[in-house]
Structures are given as structure tokens and as C-alpha cells.
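Budget justification aside, the reviewers requested a transparent look at the raw inputs and outputs of the sequence design task funded under Objective 1. We therefore reproduce one unedited record. The lines immediately below are the C-alpha cells for a 371-residue chain.
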């Protein structure tokens, strides 16, 4: 067992930096020396609501430190990106081409801990300790299933890589995979944080003619233009029904609703907002992961409108991560620019505070800055 530092939460609102023990990888498992971990709103929700102890973090990159028997896709020393939606490759959804909603290993779809490495892989005071989304990336080491590991392009720094496997993938994939944004189309993006900025740049790369960024912050709208927004709309927080926003969108889009609209705020009151901004037969995408009950006005669906709620940008790791790496290496996808500030495990509380108060596009915890 290796003693290492890890951010451990009680799942009732508290988290503390503790010393945990990480063991040897079992068959089909890999031990990772983590280099960087992204900070995500989902981490904060988990800290508040899971009601059990676990290592925080589900966005991470690092180097392979040890492999178990039967591992064939990576070797000691390999640079890797970790993926929390771990496919089993054999269930109905994996066979249907939906590895992100694997029925056996997905931490949000299967309702089980089956995607974890063996229970004793990580311990606290001699007792098995769960890892967030089967990963637990806010730690110096972790043990994961081989299927959670994707080789990392040498051109992608660890800090940059750590934000790909959630925030970037969710936004980029929602536009490219789920909505299939077409060239020449019009797109509205509600909320210009980490997910929204990646929807914006994915829509722009897909050839959208109009990408309309919507936010209550002028600063975020300015940043949205740097990521590919062609137009911006400053929303009034009192305009909860988006009546004023709709008029602005109509004025920018030849009197018609947008072809696509994406909700990227995670604010339940805005769950139906993308429906209001699209034309008849347009596509509304709830990309932020709202899970609360929302009451819809059925007139918003008129006529022939489509409303989808994709998970994780419909990620297929072997298909999507290499595409993202290549776009970044070619200078077409802005990833470094998303990272507003970096932290250490000791200063993680400040990172969460900055995220919750809107000071970040993305924050990253640097765990080991050695190459």
C-alpha cells in the first residue's frame, strides 16, 4: 500500500485533506499517479449530497504507475486521461453504441459500484474508501479499471487534459454528438461558463453561421466572443421567462428562433429556456445536468420541437478524445484558455469558492507538476 494525500468528503458538506492508502492494481486494473484534477460543479454537488465518505474528483490526468495482469492498452509510464463514464463493452447500451450510459459500470446509470476497481484498492484507516465516479482524482494516486484509461496525446499538457473528461466533453459533445449542429445553422447558448464555452467553440467549429451567447455577465460574454460567439445577449436576471431574451434572439436571427439552443447553467428555472429560443422543429438541449423537477408549459414544444438531455456529450472515449486532442494540437480548440486559475490539494477550498462565485471558467488542482 502507498500512503498518499487525498481530498476526502463525508458527503454531507465537509471535505478534508487526509492520508489514504492506495494498493496494487488487481487483474484488469491500473494504478495512476495523478498529475492534475479539474474542479467541477458535480464535485461540489457530491460533497453536499452523497451522504457517505469518498475521495473527491472525477476529472483527471496522470501517468500509469503500475498495471495489473491482463492489461493490454497501457503500460507503466504512459501519459493518460481518465474517463468517469467507464464502458463495460458488453451490455445492451454499450452494444448499441452508447458507452457513456453503460448499464454495468456507469456511476450514474447502473446504480451500483461495479465500475470501481476492487474494494480494497483504496483505504482510509484500514477500511475501503469509495472514489468519486470510480476515479477519485483529487488524490496523489488512484486505482481504476483499464477501461477508464485513454492514452494522452503528448501535445496535451496534464493540466489541460484534466478538464477534457467532463466539462469540455460535455459541452463539445452536446453540440457535436447529441445535437449534431449543422453548418450554416443558428445556435443559442445560455450560460457561458465552462460547459457553455465548449458548446460555443464546438458550434463554431461545426460551421454554425450564428452563435449567440447569452449570460448575465458582460465579462463572460466578452470571453464567449473569444471562443467563437458571433453575437451576445446580456440577460436581465429579472427576465425569468426569457421574454426579453427571445426578442433579442429574433432580432439577431431574421425574426425566427434559433435552430439549436443549449442550456448550460444548471439553474432549474432555466430548464425550459432553450425551448423558448428555438424555431418550430428546432432542437433544445439541456446540457448542464439539471436533475430537479421542472414544470413545463407545453406550448413551448409547439411545433415539432425536440428537447434532449444528453449525458456527458454522448462520450465514446476511443472516438472522441483523440478528436479533441487533434483539434487542440492543431490550434482549433481552445483548452488552455479555459483554465482561469490553478490550485493545490491544500488550497482546494479556495478553488471551490472561486467556482461557486463565478470567478472561473475552469479551475485545476495541480497535484504533481513534474513532467
Amino acid at each position: 500500500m502507498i500512503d498518499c494525500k487525498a481530498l476526502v468528503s463525508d458527503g454531507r458538506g465537509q471535505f478534508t485533506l487526509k492520508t489514504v492508502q492506495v494498493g496494487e492494481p488487481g487483474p484488469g486494473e491500473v494504478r495512476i499517479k495523478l498529475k492534475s484534477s479539474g474542479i467541477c460543479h458535480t464535485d461540489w454537488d457530491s460533497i453536499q449530497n452523497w451522504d457517505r465518505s469518498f475521495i473527491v474528483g472525477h476529472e483527471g490526468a496522470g501517468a500509469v504507475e503500475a498495471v495489473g495482469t491482463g492489461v493490454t492498452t497501457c503500460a507503466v509510464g504512459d501519459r493518460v486521461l481518465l474517463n468517469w463514464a467507464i464502458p463495460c463493452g458488453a451490455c445492451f447500451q454499450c452494444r448499441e453504441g452508447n458507452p457513456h450510459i453503460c448499464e454495468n459500470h456507469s456511476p450514474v446509470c447502473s446504480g451500483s459500484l461495479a465500475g470501481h476497481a476492487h474494494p480494497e484498492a483504496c483505504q482510509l484507516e484500514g477500511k475501503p474508501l469509495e472514489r468519486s465516479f470510480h476515479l477519485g482524482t483529487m488524490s496523489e494516486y488512484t486505482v481504476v479499471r483499464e477501461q477508464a484509461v485513454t492514452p494522452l496525446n503528448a501535445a496535451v499538457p496534464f493540466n489541460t487534459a484534466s478538464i477534457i473528461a467532463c466539462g469540455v466533453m460535455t459541452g463539445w459533445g452536446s453540440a457535436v454528438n447529441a445535437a449534431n449542429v449543422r453548418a450554416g445553422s443558428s445556435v443559442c447558448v445560455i450560460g457561458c461558463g465552462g460547459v457553455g464555452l465548449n458548446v460555443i467553440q464546438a458550434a463554431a467549429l461545426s460551421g454554425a453561421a450564428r452563435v449567440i451567447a447569452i449570460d448575465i455577465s458582460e465579462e463572460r460574454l466578452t470571453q464567449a466572443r473569444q471562443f467563437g460567439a458571433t453575437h451576445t445577449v446580456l440577460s436581465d436576471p429579472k427576465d425569468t421567462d426569457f421574454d426579453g431574451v427571445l426578442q433579442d434572439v429574433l432580432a439577431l436571427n431574421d425574426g425566427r428562433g434559433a435552430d439549436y439552443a443549449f442550456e448550460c447553467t444548471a439553474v432549474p428555472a432555466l430548464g425550459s429556456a432553450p425551448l423558448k429560443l428555438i424555431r418550430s422543429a428546432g432542437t433544445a438541449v439541456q446540457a448542464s445536468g439539471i436533475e430537479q423537477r421542472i414544470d413545463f408549459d407545453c406550448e413551448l414544444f409547439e411545433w415539432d420541437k425536440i428537447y434532449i438531455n444528453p449525458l456527458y456529450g454522448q462520450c465514446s472515449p476511443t472516438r472522441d478524445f483523440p478528436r479533441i486532442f487533434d483539434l487542440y494540437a492543431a490550434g482549433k480548440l481552445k483548452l488552455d484558455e479555459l483554465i482561469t486559475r490553478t490550485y493545490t490539494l491544500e488550497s482546494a477550498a479556495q478553488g471551490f469558492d472561486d467556482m461557486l462565485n463565478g470567478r472561473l471558467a475552469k479551475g485545476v488542482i495541480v497535484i504533481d507538476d513534474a513532467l
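The longest helix spans residues 164-178. The chain has a mean pLDDT of 94. Computational costs for records of this kind are itemized in the attached budget.
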